[in-house]
From TrEMBL, chain A:
The chain crosses the membrane at residues 6-31, 38-55, 92-113, 141-158, 187-208, 220-248, 260-283. GO terms for molecular function: L-isoleucine transmembrane transporter activity; L-leucine transmembrane transporter activity; L-phenylalanine transmembrane transporter activity; L-valine transmembrane transporter activity. One of its GO terms (cellular component) is plasma membrane. CDD domains: TM_PBP1_LivH_like (cd06582). GO terms for biological process: D-alanine transmembrane transport; L-alanine transport; L-isoleucine import across plasma membrane. Belongs to the binding-protein-dependent transport system permease family. LivHM subfamily. InterPro entries: ABC_transp_permease, BCAA_transport_permease. Keywords: Amino-acid transport, Cell inner membrane, Cell membrane, Membrane, Transmembrane, Transmembrane helix, Transport. This is Neutral amino acid ABC transporter membrane protein. It is found in: Cell membrane. It is a multi-pass membrane protein. It comes from Aestuariispira insulae.
UniProtKB/TrEMBL annotation, chain B:
It comes from the Bacteria. One of its GO terms (cellular component) is plasma membrane. GO terms for molecular function: branched-chain amino acid transmembrane transporter activity. Keywords: Cell membrane, Membrane, Transmembrane, Transmembrane helix. The chain crosses the membrane at residues 6-25, 37-57, 69-91, 143-161, 198-217, 223-241, 248-267, 279-296. It is a multi-pass membrane protein. The keyword Oxidoreductase does not apply. Its main location: membrane. It is found in: Cell membrane. InterPro entries: ABC_transp_permease, LivM-like. This is Amino acid/amide ABC transporter membrane protein 2 (HAAT family).
Length: 287, 312
């Protein structure tokens, strides 16, 4: 039974990783670089909810919507100010720039909110028990339901809207997409907005599940990347599966190894994938 | 006056250590175009390897072998190089993003090991008992001697990197960086060449770690935080000029000057109880500085100046 409980916890962690990995994969698919500031965008999202929900005492759903919008807008502004200038550079320059952006964002977070750890709500939430002795906290139900809703929305967007189709076209072949008259700048803006919103959602859910502190996003970046690579980087659907696999493996590993080595499990899975099948379990990009 | 001299010695020692690390990164990124974002890992492994080999006394963790410092330096280079070999073997035939991600992963795992495996590394309490002929900077003229030694090590590293850069080996590395397919068409085994460059660069970083260890005489996982041990070195190399060994060293001295200078400014402007905010402001400044350099002068202060075939 303990195993089933761990699988449940793993699914919750996996949902958070999946949302992060989908954002990483989307930006990678369109802009061809691994965004190292994605983790710190998650942290921003988590802190916006802290301000709106915990400090201003507004309802949680409203705080989440505000946070998604603020983080998405911030991501678009960063692109306008910095990343846009590197459109014609080698994508690795973008990677280095995003690494610098990660530190800029984190030091801003630390300047505004300080280094200490925050929680959304004080006090202990009672876990709900259900069939077979499994336990789940109300916040964790919010995480699972929220993730499912976001992923359905993402799926409908990518499959049904014109912009979603354009995004997939650019991800498949940017040159060909441009030739068919797709406005790539618009697609890039849309990618950043979605990536930012998804990062915020991942950060908020991480904050709901654990605590809010300045390094939270950076600390989870490695498993998020591992999930994106496992699913085939550039493939948002694979990233969801990758997130769940990494999340569940990390929780199950606590049966055998010291829980502080959880990120090492993500890394080990990533290394195996890179050796065996670098394009990920679902077709992604390796070159 | 004496304070100023001490500050100068301290500054040059630290800048020299960063110069060694920056040269190591230049071999990987400047020569061959490999993105190592886990410098902290190789730096830390070098530092701890040397500490384990040279430390004296009955210690609560690994060490106590009491070998001379030069053996510590060699151990640092070998262990960092071996680690680089395995990381490189897995990631170097994939696109550069994978190496970046894998190197971040290695840095994270090394950090976890340093923190958690107290029996080996002393954990968060740090590694004690590090010896070395020059480890105590407050005791007589050792600080000056150590600074001279750091400069000598930096000079040797520079000389070797410069030779490597100008050699046919360096030319192949540049060819791989500029056009890997063409280099392979010329019959060069690009994976093997990249692996050599990655191992060499990481060994130099390990050496930097060893030099750092014997300077401070005490190391703990905090010293290998990704900010100071990875990011600052990237800013140094890019500011100085990727691909240029002189630039790598110049960048290390300038950025270390900026980093120490901003500490001086924030501590004299801000009240004492805002010291932590001061530290965040400095990181913010360095982050913005990197963006500014990438936007306005991506080639750095001393741009790469590859030898031309007809001038050889």
């Amino acid at each position: 039974m303990e195993i089933l409980q761990l699988v449940l916890y793993g699914t919750i962690l996996g949902s958070i990783l999946a949302l992060g990995a989908v954002g990483v994969s989307l930006t990678f698919g369109i802009l061809r670089f691994a965004n190292f500031s994605h983790g710190d965008l998650m942290t921003i999202g988590a802190y916006v909810v802290f301000v709106v929900f915990t400090v201003m005492k507004l309802p949680l759903w409203l705080a989440i919507i505000v946070s998604l919008a603020v983080t998405a807008a911030l991501t678009a502004i960063i692109d306008k100010l910095i990343y846009r200038n590197f459109r014609n550079s080698d994508p690795v320059i973008l990677l280095i720039s995003s690494f610098g952006m990660a530190l800029i964002l984190r030091s801003l977070i630390q300047l505004i909110w300080g280094p200490s750890t925050q929680v959304y709500e004080k006090g202990i939430q009672l876990a709900i028990k259900f069939g077979g002795g499994l336990r789940i906290k109300p916040d964790q139900i919010i995480i699972l339901v929220g993730t499912v809703l976001l992923i359905i929305a993402l799926h409908l967007f990518l499959r049904k809207t014109k912009m979603g189709k354009a995004m997939r076209a650019v991800a498949d072949n940017a040159e060909l997409a441009r030739l068919t008259g797709i406005n790539t700048e618009k697609v890039i803006l849309c990618t950043w907005l979605m990536g930012g919103a998804l990062a915020a959602a991942a950060g908020i859910f991480l904050g709901l599940d654990t605590r809010v502190f300045p390094e939270m996003g950076w600390n989870i970046l490695l498993p998020v990347f591992a999930a994106a690579i496992l699913g085939g980087i550039g493939n948002p659907y694979g990233a969801i599966a990758g997130g769940l696999v990494i999340g569940i493996s990390q929780e199950l590993s606590t049966q055998f190894i010291d829980p502080s080595y959880k990120p090492a499990v993500a890394f080990a899975i990533m290394v195996v994938i890179l050796i065996v099948r670098p394009t990920g379990i679902f077709a992604g990009r390796s070159s | 006056m004496e304070g100023l001299i001490n500050f100068g010695i301290l500054f040059l020692t630290m800048a020299g250590i960063y110069g060694i690390l920056s040269l190591g990164l230049n071999v990987q990124w400047g020569f061959t175009g490999m993105l190592n974002v886990g410098i902290a890992a190789f730096f830390a492994v070098g530092a701890y390897s040397s500490a384990i080999v040279t430390s004296v006394g009955d210690l609560p963790h690994w060490g106590g072998i009491g070998a001379p410092m030069i053996i510590g330096f060699a151990a640092a280079m070998i262990v960092s190089g071996i680690m680089a070999f395995f990381v490189g073997l897995i990631t170097l035939n994939l696109r550069s993003d994978y190496l970046a991600i894998a190197s971040i992963g290695i840095a994270e795992i090394i950090r976890l090991v340093l923190k958690n495996e107290e029996w080996m590394t002393g954990g968060v309490n740090g590694f004690t008992g590090i010896s070395g002929k020059f480890n105590n900077i407050f005791d007589g003229g050792h600080a000056l001697l150590y600074m001279i030694m750091v400069m000598v090590v930096l000079g040797i590293a520079y000389f070797l990197c410069e030779r490597a850069y100008k050699s046919p080996w360096g030319r192949v590395q540049r060819a791989i960086r500029e056009n890997e397919i063409a280099a392979r068409a010329m019959g060069k085994n690009s994976l093997s060449f990249r692996l050599q460059s990655f191992v060499l660069g990481s060994a130099i970083m390990g050496l930097g770690g060893a030099v750092y260890t014997h300077f401070t005489g005490f190391i703990s996982p905090e010293a290998f935080d990704p900010l100071l041990a990875t990011f600052l070195i990237w800013v140094m190399l890019i500011a100085g000029g990727s691909g240029n060994n002189k630039g790598a060293i110049l960048g290390a001295f300038i950025i270390w000057g900026v980093w120490s200078g901003t500490e001086f400014i924030t501590s004299s402007i801000l009240p004492a109880d805002m010291a932590t905010q001061g530290a965040y402001l400095r990181v913010l400044f360095i982050g913005i500085l990197l963006q500014a350099i990438l936007l306005t002068r991506p080639q750095g202060l001393l741009p790469e100046n590859a030898p031309q075939p007809d001038k050889d």
